[in-house]
Structures are given as C-alpha cells and as structure tokens.
Amino acid sequence: MVEINQEDILELLCRRLASFANTEQEITPETNLITQLAIDSIKLLNLIMELEDNFDISIPLNALTDVVTVYDLANLIYRIKSNSK
Amino acid sequence: MSSTIITLGDPLMQESDTQPSSKLSMAATPTANTLPQRLADFDTLTDALEYAADGATGYNFYDAKGGVRSVLSYSALKQHALMGARRLSSLGLARGDRVALIADTTPEFIELFFACRYAGLVPFAMPIPVNLGSHAIYVRQLRGMLESSQASVAIANLDFVGFLEEAAEGLNADHLQWVGTPSQLELLPEIEVVFQPNSPEETAYLQFTSGSTRMPRGVVITEQALMCNLRGIVRNGLEVRASDRCASWLPFYHDMGLVGLVLSPMAAQLSVDYLATRDFAIRPLQWLKLISRNRCTIAFSQPFGLKLCALRVRESDLKELDLSCWRAAGIGAEMIRPDILRNFADKFSAAGFDERAFLPCYGLAESTLAVSFSKINQGVMSIQVDTKTLVEKKMAVRVQAEGRKFNEFVNCGRPLPEHTVKIVDDNGEELPQMMVGSVLVRGDSVMTGYFNNHEETNKALKPGKWLDTGDIGFTLEGDLYITGRRTDVIIVNGRNIRAQDIEELAEQQPEVRSREASAFGISGSDDTTVVVLVVECRLTSVEERQSLMSRLQQMVYMAFGVNCLVELVPPHTLPRTSSGKLSRFAARQGFLQRANMADQISVVQSGDR
C-alpha cells in the first residue's frame, strides 16, 4: 500500500470539499465545515461514504464529535489510517 | 404472571459467562419458530421474554457489508439478561431506580435493557452522538438526561463511555453510583436473588423526547401501557403471523426503533435483522438487501429513510433485489408526504416492491408508540382537500373542481382498540369530522407523565386523561389525517426538533436575552425544511453581529445536525402575545413577509403550546 501522509490527505480533502461548497470559496485547513461549508446531514453522509471508500477505512461516529474544521477531519482520517495498518 | 427463580451453577449460564453474546453463534436465527405463536398477550415484558426464550427465534446484527456480526436468540437474551440483573443487584439499588444506557445498535443494549427489567430497575435509552463537532453539547444533553432521570447507573460501550464519564462529572453523587461499560459490569459479582415479578402498574422504561439540555422530558411508560401498545401493534396494526420476519435500521433510542422493532417482534416471537443506523445512513441499500436476502416481511422507516434509498439506488442494484416478500412497510415518525412514497414505489416496483405494502401510521412516544394504523395491505390512501377552505375555514373539504389548489393528506387509519382520538378547537371543544384542530388521544397506551416534570406533564395531559399530541389534524369516517405539526416542532430530514430547544441554545449566548429568540421551520427549495432562528439583537458592529450569527449556526448544528438560517432583528421586532409570550406563529409570518416568501404564510396552522 502506498504510504499516505497527513498533507496528502489534507490536499485531497480540500479538493473534494470544493465540490460541496456553493461558492468560489477557497478551502483551507482552517475552513469551518459547519458555518463556512454548511455541510448538512446528507452531504455529510456522502462525504463519509466517499472518504471511507477512498481511504478504505471506517469512520466511527463518535470521532466526528470533535471535528469542526477541515484540518480536524484530515487529522482524524490520518489517525484512523495509521491505526488500521 | 411468571416469577423468575434463578439458581446459580447452571452449566449453560457458566458457559455463556465466558462467551460473550457476539461469539455464541454466527448463523442468524430462523424465521420459523419451534413454539406456537402468542401475539403479545402477556402481562409484562419479562413474561413475554420468558415465553419467547423457549423458541428458536431472536435478534441478528449485521455489519455494513451485510455479514452477520452477532446473533442474540431470545433464549440467550434471557440468560444474559438474568446474569446482568444479578450483577446490577450487587449495586444495592432500590426497585424502580433508573439506569441510563447509551443505545448503540448492539446486543449489549438489549441485554442490559432486559437485565434492568428482571432486576426491577427502570432503563432508558440515550442517543449516540451523530453530529460534527457535537462533543460539548452532546455531553450536556447526556448530563441533562442523567439529572432529570436521577439515574443511579449509566452504561455505554467503549466508543461512548468517555462522553458518559464527562457528563457524570459534577452530577449529584447521591444518585449516580456507577458508570462504566458492559464489560466492566461483567466484573461485578452476581448476587443470588429471587427476583420479584414485575407488576403491570410499574414503570417499564423512560423515553426521552427532546434534545434540551435544561428541560429534557422523560416519558414514563408502565408495563401495562407498553403491553397494551404492543398488542395493538402486533394484532391490529400488523396482523402478525408466524411466518413474519422483521428488518430494521431504526435507532434503539427512538420510540419507533425500540418499541416497534425491538419489543414488538419479541412479544410475538419473531426474528429481527438489524443494521446500525449509521451503516444504513451511509449505505441505505444494505437494508433493502437484508430484506431481500432474508425474506423479511415487516420493516418500518420514516419517509426520509425511503427517500435516501430512492436517491442512492442504481439500475444494477434493482436486479439484485427481490422485495416481493415485504408485506408491511410501516411509515411513521414524521409527516407523511405521498410523493416520497410514490417515488419509492416507482423506483422499487422493478424489484418486486408492492405499493400495497405501505402502511402509514401515526403515533408518538407519549402514547408508547402507536396511536393509529391504516388498514394493512391497502397501501397509501390519501385525500386531496381544497387549500382555500382549509386555510380560511380550517375545514377539510375534498377538492371538487379541476385546477383548484389542494393539499394532499395521508389516511393514518383508525385508533387502536382501547384508544380514542378526538379533534378539538383552541378552547378544547370537540370538533365534528372534517374540521381541523388539535389531535387528542385517550387510551391505555398513554404515558403517566414526564418523569419529575409536572409542568410539562400538565401541559400535555388534559383533564379526562386526554393526551394533547401537539399535532394538528382532522378525522373523516373514523380515520385520522394529520395536517401539520404545531409550530413548536420542526421536522428536518426525519429528525424532530423542538423549537424551544433551539431558542434555549440561543439564549445561552451572552448577547441574547431570554425570550428574545424565536425558532421555526419554513419550506426551502426542493421541499426540504429550513430551520430559521430570529434573534433580537442590540449589537451594532458588523464583526460582533457576524460572530454571533456564526456561533448560533454552529451551536444549532452541533446540537441538532441541521443548518439554520439566522436573522438578527432590532429589539421589539418579535411579536408577543398579551401575556408577553413570544408567538412563533407570528414570528414566522413576520419572517416570511420580510423575506418575500408570502406564499407560505398561511399554510401553517397556529397553535403554540
């Protein structure tokens, strides 16, 4: 399996999230998923499904409770990915 | 009534002691039972389990890929529940003490629920956190429930016990004696006790209905009320037979999930196949695959769940599905819009789904679960009523001429036996059929009240034991039609959100004074509901106003998982009643006017409670 580092995840995530944003908004690690991207429940489910398929991981719901920014989410994926090896 | 006498040293129990339930067997329980079927004619929940435990059926849990994760036959459930009851007994609790359980879709939750009943304790299910960034607010919601219930014990699996421990900090230690995981509970000694049989008048469980941190409402349901409702569901609503099998993704912490798809099947000794709510939400077709593969006949959903299925399905999926076995597709828990059901039926008829399986029903946790069912095998019956007459005269008249504007409402059928529904006007006077008003229910399934909350109890329970459901509707030829919720409940994507709970969050911000926030729902594009929060605000700086708006949006999202439109208005903008109470109905009218959305203005009925 190809090693993936935190930065790659962050970059991929920013690109994916750009398609969720309704404006030309620039996505940075600090972007707030709730207030700036307005991720509603259906979008969130779609995103989780994509991320799980893409990274071959399972994202537990309890972990999302500490995710507010793009950086938080990237960090979570990285941690799950590293633990699953 | 059976009394349960337990002897220690039973080899079967010692064996299962070392084998967690999840390892017992990996073959799902059969549909056909070895026992004659009894349709919920028991005095108590444990009586029902005692009978079911002699058969071969039970609960099955599936993983996200459709594999069997664990199997819990009713026989194993009884053994494990008794063990759990003996361990709980070592804590020296009093009869009727409350036990809080975070209700993930696991065998452990069901085992502990029944362990409580064997030990004479009162369990209640608490939700699992599902929203982004919800950590802090979820902990506060848990603490609210622990406080309101004065729980003595709180149990959660490893994923969630951390939240529980945080919530327990700072609570009154006189009440909460023990917090831990099911495996930690297994380390407690089993006490040899002869359990007292439960009586029908005793409380069976509590059901929390609100995400409020300050004023949670725990519905008190007695054994009698529960068994009455289970009988109604199994015999009258579903006309259950021995060949039935259920499938469910509904969360165990909701009344429809717990009463409808955990307790009802057990009371009729049916097998059930479970998919975790999270797994359904991400891959909804797994639920349909389960139904197809296991030839399930009964499966309930909110309309939102059906919508998710229809959104996600591909042509290739349809070829793999055979839904012709599905005879009762119960629909409830939110306003039923016929177009969502039609759309589902259109998509899935190619997979053998018969639209006559649709079974609209109406109910609420305050009446255990079910109040009325439409006639089984008939599908959705609906009526198109003239919009103008509905709005101006609060009267439901079948639309006569072509081209007139109409509203379509689904027939939710007749009340269960031993239950009566009446429609009343704002003064509590009973209305004739076709007249729209508040829906009141009386019957043996109705709650005794909200736990430790006289104020809310008195608002909901009217003289003569009538429960004010908070919903608006009319009757026609004995059948019930729901036309709307009152403005104090907002339903978004299948979630019921109390307007009061959103306002309460707003008022917790330092810039917002009490009674200066009003929340309600409006129809957005694509027929979705948008939550609007109007706040009176004295701030003048753009930055401060922006900061407040973002914070409010974020708080509402974290607590309820929905986006919300925040409008800041000058003080004294929100309309108040003569008694100084905010009127959400009028606040909504005002908002729609300001937003140039006047076409929506008159559709919603008034009725702030």
TrEMBL record, chain A:
It holds the Pfam family PP-binding. Residues 4-81 form the Carrier domain. InterPro entries: ACP-like_sf (IPR036736), PP-bd_ACP (IPR009081). Transmembrane segments: none annotated. This is Acyl carrier protein. It comes from Nitrosomonas communis.
UniProtKB/TrEMBL annotation, chain B:
One of its GO terms (biological process) is fatty acid biosynthetic process. Keywords: Ligase. It comes from Nitrosomonas communis. The keyword Ligase applies. Belongs to the ATP-dependent AMP-binding enzyme family. One of its GO terms (molecular function) is adenylyltransferase activity. Pfam families: AMP-binding. This is Fatty-acyl-CoA synthase. Residues 71-451 form the AMP-dependent synthetase/ligase domain. SUPFAM superfamilies: Acetyl-CoA synthetase-like. It comes from the Bacteria. GO terms for cellular component: plasma membrane. Residues 15-25 have a biased composition (Polar residues). InterPro entries: AMP-bd_C_sf (IPR045851), AMP-dep_synth/lig_dom (IPR000873), ANL_N_sf (IPR042099), FAAL/FAAC (IPR040097).
